[in-house]
Design a protein that fits this description.
It is built from no helices and ten strands. The protein is mostly beta strands.
Length: about 130
């Protein structure tokens, strides 16, 4: 499921996989107060680390750090910064944005990852303007 300020709830979320899975997009109605979170079910996984990468149109990939700051990423999974998101009730809630995104290029693609039992699982989705 996704949560965004003023948004409806989407179909049930998919589990992340080693091969990657496309997740339902997020459409944000008010870019000046964008709140974007993505909740994914964990199945039997217990994440050891969590990661978020954002790709804005025309800009190199950026990784999110534990404080929510985005910085350049060299596309090497070994260099991803752990975001420290903790599971709750068999779900993992990735907090991606809570800020003004009105000056950003759209669409943007977000990839959420977690590492469990030595495997890196991920899913990706687009964030788009409502209009």
């Amino acid at each position: 499921m996704f949560l965004a300020a003023g948004m409806w709830r989407q179909a049930p979320a998919q589990e992340l996989t080693v091969a990657g899975v496309q997740i339902a997009p997020v459409v944000v109605p008010d870019m000046t107060a964008a709140v974007v979170e993505k909740q994914v079910p964990l199945g039997r996984d217990m994440p050891e680390a969590t990661y978020v990468v954002v790709q804005f149109a025309g800009v190199p990939a950026l990784m999110r750090d534990r404080q929510g700051v985005f910085q350049p990423w060299d596309i090497d999974a070994a260099h991803l910064a752990d975001n420290g998101f903790a599971p709750s009730g068999g779900q993992l809630n990735f907090k991606i944005f809570s800020q003004d995104l009105s000056d950003k290029n759209f669409p943007m693609t977000v990839t959420v990852y977690y590492r469990a039992r030595g495997e890196l699982k991920f899913g990706y989705f687009d964030i788009m303007r409502a209009n």
